[in-house]
Design goal:
2 copies of one chain form a homodimer. With 399 residues, chain A is an alpha/beta fold. The first copy, chain A, folds into 2 domains: 119 residues, Aspartate Aminotransferase, domain 1 (Alpha-Beta Complex); 243 residues, Type I PLP-dependent aspartate aminotransferase-like (Major domain) (Aspartate Aminotransferase, domain 2, 3-Layer(aba) Sandwich), CATH 3.40.640. Chain A is 40% helix and 14% strand. The first copy, chain A, contains 11 helices and 15 strands. In chain A, the strands form 4 sheets. The first copy, chain A, has a 7-stranded mixed β-sheet, with helices on both faces. A 4-stranded antiparallel β-sheet of chain A has the order 11-12-15-14. In chain A, strands 1-13 form a two-stranded parallel sheet. In chain A, strand 3, helix 4 and strand 4 form a beta-alpha-beta unit. Chain A is globular, with a radius of gyration of 22 Å.
Chain lengths: 399, 399
């Protein structure tokens, strides 16, 4: 067909639309870029037989359009879990199921921010959330952290700076457990200090607790949500890490007035009922046993990564040994440009994301997040060694 | 807790947010309001065993984040089906899977319209789509139809009127097969005439073919998409009607430049992989056999509704006997106010949606859509009789 015959969409697209190519993440031989969970402990047989049971009992309900907040029995299970594990006093009506926590986060971003509004985050944080914030025009400002979490004085100073600029801060987004990518868990004392400050300034805390179940050692710290009895904490969680991202099941917990606003941005109706039925039926009897089994597999991979870092990087890098989660945050000497090297490393077989991708200011080219959840432990071990060789070959390893 | 201690979200919500209460549709004793499919022919055992097979083969892929366009093998199956059934020449890369067709429709609305933009539709059309259009500020203009579809002269006149007002029309949305709620299928001649007009005016056709598989009798009419070789037709379809709404699986087919814009409004990542695996595995071997079985069940229900309308309404109403789909469009005498009576009818046990809900101009209070897909045939029969009794009791039945 001649080009002239082709229909032109010029002038038809909305101002708000951008160009996003569909597709899947690249998967190099050693994939440390994406925080996938362990595929071997995925309870496929358990999910399949649970689904069968749930369909025998409730399958005909699939012919209805699902409740827009999601399957009530799964929301109840989420509320009970959060009561037991996160000391939260919530019921099924406080919970909305979403397509991964990503949908919940997107709905809340849209409910709480207009383009140009300021939100605060940890100085490095999950790039998917940062992309969503920017997609909706948010002005993202990072707050300095140490290994105990957000530094209260820095939070206070940032809030005052924004007030001085005449800017209203809409919320503080935090990943307090196994912070992604930093790996630490915010201490109880810090949580209390942060909450005292945000409440005094009239801004809500947006707590993203996606990784909390993946604890290998050490003590849990209670949720921000449990420390607040005023309704100022909005909470999101996910089954992507304790089951699988492909199950696309996350949730938000928020006061009714926030849920009602967020629902105006829910797309595609209530969450997938077929998956929700399988998850509820499986987890109601097997949740903690499965989490334990998964963590037993993950800790071996973490140890393999830490061992290989020690053997292959020596003093050329430093890292925090995380007590859980799916990644190690590696710091190379100031001036090491991992940002420029990232694409080549993917091509040479080792995938990672450099620090600038997690920083609102684009800082951190000498930092990298290495995810250990998906490959077998031996592959994790080999891959880190291979990464050291590639870095060395390219003059980036200085011991 | 004292009210004064409660955190206030005042001033924190975005301008764009509205208040939407989560929940499920009301279900009166006789529910003719919502277009649910038949629950009895839902292939629950087939889906469960297909899922088992698919998980045995590909289950570990659930540990990855799904391709944002959806499971490639299911996109391939959709492309092949559309080739066979709708004469469309498309491949898997032209298909994006979505959470029901509702998500696809929402993405396309956002990609193609800014607030205040005009779109054209049939004079009565699916209220869920109208709500989504209005949610994003679209100015929806209905075009007059007869039993053959959109009237070409009316379309031409409407386009000229809008041009006279200095308005750019962004697209024509149509449900050409078993039009929801009108029930007719647009003739081939009309499709050709409509397409000639839209192409001449440089506007795309947005073809919603959700009901096409539910044909009980008569001949299929080929898709708008197959009549166009310029890329001016955007197509959406769904598995909600041939499987179940709870499976939340729909799709869009569009030129690459449209898909890339629409993807910027995809929320929650790629579509649920767990459900996609089950659907692909089940439908690849059982699609047509299942559709036939479902249609055998549905036609009995349609006949029960038509029989009961004849026996209980006589000359007090008129209706088109649809050759497929899930609803009958009933017209009562001019002046009958079914809009005012709808809520009371729900309360008295018979749910229906009146015409004003499907009309951009809010016309059609004397019209009603009655859906027959979900209840057993006897219940459909009884429910229509009960509706006649309720109408009569309320002075609304004039034979």
């Amino acid at each position: 067909m001649a080009d002239s015959e082709r229909f032109s969409y010029e002038g038809l697209f909305s101002k708000n639309s951008t160009v996003v190519a569909p597709g899947a993440a690249l998967r190099p031989k050693y994939d440390f870029a994406v925080a996938y969970p362990d595929p071997e402990t995925l309870p496929l047989d358990g999910l399949a037989s649970s689904l069968k049971n749930a369909l025998d009992r409730d399958g005909k309900d699939l012919a209805y359009y699902p409740n827009s907040a999601g399957l009530p029995s799964l929301r109840r299970l989420v509320a009970e879990k959060l009561g037991r594990d996160r000391n939260m006093t919530v019921g099924e009506d406080d919970v909305v199921l979403t397509s991964g926590s990503g949908e919940a986060i997107g709905m809340l971003i849209q409910a709480l921010t207009d383009p140009g509004d300021v939100v605060l985050t940890e100085e490095f944080f999950y790039l998917g959330t940062m992309r969503q914030m920017r997609r909706f025009g948010t002005d993202v400002v990072g707050v300095k952290c140490d290994y105990e979490g957000i530094i209260p004085q820095e939070l206070e100073a940032t809030l005052e700076r924004q007030a001085g600029l005449g800017k209203k801060v809409k919320y503080l987004y935090t990943i307090p457990c196994f912070q992604n990518p930093l790996g630490w868990t915010m201490t109880l004392e810090r949580r209390k200090q942060v909450l005292e400050i945000t409440r005094r300034h009239g801004i809500p805390v947006f707590e993203d607790d996606c990784y909390v179940d993946l604890r290998f050692e050490g003590e849990d710290v209670t949720s921000f949500h449990s420390l607040d009895d005023t309704g100022s904490v909005i909470y999101v969680g996910s089954f992507s890490k304790i089951l699988a991202p492909g199950m696309r099941m996350g949730y938000m917990v928020a006061p009714p007035e926030v849920i009602q606003r967020a629902m105006s941005f829910k797309a595609g109706g209530g969450v997938n009922q077929f998956a929700a039925l399988a998850i509820e039926e499986y987890l109601k009897d097997n949740m903690y046993q499965h989490i334990e089994e998964e963590n037993r597999a993950l800790v071996v991979k973490r140890d393999a990564m830490i061992a290989s870092l020690g053997e292959n990087f020596g003093s050329a890098a430093t890292w925090l040994v995380p007590q859980g989660g799916l990644y190690v945050w590696v710091e190379m000497p100031e001036g090491t440009d991992l940002a420029a090297f990232q694409e080549q490393s993917f091509r040479e077989g080792v995938g990672f994301y450099n620090g600038t991708m997690f920083s609102p200011e684009g800082r951190g080219a000498n930092l990298a997040r290495l995810c250990f959840g998906h490959p077998p432990a031996e592959t994790v071990y080999e891959g880190v060694a291979e990464w050291a060789r590639i870095l060395d070959r390219n003059g980036l390893l200085r011991g």
